[in-house]
Amino acid sequence: MGQLDGKTAIVTGGTSGIGLATAQRFAAEGAYVFVTGRRKEALDAAVESIGAGVTGIQSDVSDLAGLDRLYAAVEQQGRRIDVLFANAGGGGFSTLEQVTERHFDETFGNNVKGTLFTVQKALPLLNEGASVILTGSTAASVGNEAFGVYGASKAAVRSFARTWANELKGRTIRVNTISPGPIDTPGIDGLAPDAEQAAQLKGFLASQVPLARMGRPDEVASAAVFLASDQSTFITGIELFVDGGINQI
Fold first, then answer.
1. Which residue segment(s) compose the domain that 205 sits in?
2. CA nearest 37: which of 21, 16, 58?
3. In whole angstroms, what is the distance from residue 175 CA to residue 168 CA?
4. pLDDT by residue (tens digit) across 142-175?
5. Are residues 108 and 191 in the same domain?
6. Residue 84's closest CA among 139, 112, 124?
7. Which residues contact 190 (CB under 8 A, 6 or more apart)?
8. Annotated catalytic residue: which of 26, 34, 147, 150?
9. Is the pTM above the cut of 0.85?
């Protein structure tokens, strides 16, 4: 028996890294998974890697029409949602002096606007007792240089979890945040201009972690499975750090 047998789960931004690892785990635990991604080739590859019990929807969470397509597909299959992992997002380095309007709009569009409307538009399809999981970041709690816009966007996500946990308690819908620390994903590679500098960045990040390494996407996925499952039915409004201790010690 899987921990998510018979459940329907949504994973946005599920074509690589944490999202893909979580979609794979949800499916392995018995859930039927809807996974989204912006690029068709990556989405098709993700669906193939997940295997049976999955539908891929090409969608950008900052585009409300894309979210409508996602939830229309859920309805067309006659399903309702037990687990919503609002994971899609991202960001890049930019100091206060360097921030442009485009950088701000893209970061807040994906991380804040996208998260808000991913959850809002899911409300009619969420079952009583559903689990909503938001992807935060350790960057929301510290002042990482050149990461101010990203950190602020993830602080907004953390705030959403508290408010929505309160607003949805009447439906016994739980809302929690997972805040990863440095995780070895393609998104980390994308923060550097080339492979050599990406390796240097990863080395630096690992040196800051008390456990002396970067985390793996599957380690975040394990936390997501816990929050999605009946093992966490008395947990709501929390921020679960999966960070190797970097923000704790």
1. 185-214
2. 58
3. 8
4. 999 999 999 999 999 999 999 999 999 999 999 9
5. no
6. 124
7. 90, 92
8. 150
9. yes
